[in-house]
Amino acid sequence: MKLLSTFEAVYLVGTIPASFIRVVYTRRFSQNDPEVPVPHPRDRLWMSLSTLGIIIPLCYLAFPWIDFADYPLLPWTGWLGTLLFSAALLLLWRSYTDLGKSWSPWAEPRKDNTLITTGIYNRIRHPMYAAQWLWAVAQMFLLQNWIAGPAMIVTLLPLYLYRVEKEEQLMLERNGQKYRDYINRTCRLLPCPFNNPGTLR
Fold it and tell me: For the chain, which end, N or C, has fewer CB atoms within 10 Å of the first or last residue's CB respectively?
């Protein structure tokens, strides 16, 4: 393994709790809802692609194969990346915790899914995606490499564009006006300071 810089070590250490949270909730999901509908092949495809956004950086930290693409940034950018990564991990934990048994790894909601609008979901409609985008931006500051740095942004974008619209349409079909009202008072990725009725923003 390569000798890591301080901020590369921060990234590596940070992936441990993030991965642990995901594994715990995936296991709970498998145990509690074994009859969940089979996900669409495109859902599996984009999910698999998004994992490359983490695998590539981990390979970068372990091997010198793509060191030729390194770039230097000002020292303060690493601290900014650390702050963003910390916020991403906290938001990710809150997202899983507040969603609880309603979480599903696929776009299709669980059979016993209930609409969660409390906790972090009272302020942000898709905080889990918000956490992933924070992680993706932080990665660019912590891993100063033109391949490993933006890898998560590149691989997350297709998944986000595919799933967010699909998930909201499914929730509208299941919850009707209740979800429409929720849409009208929240934004997808940030706390919404205004209402804009009738839009999926």
Answer: N
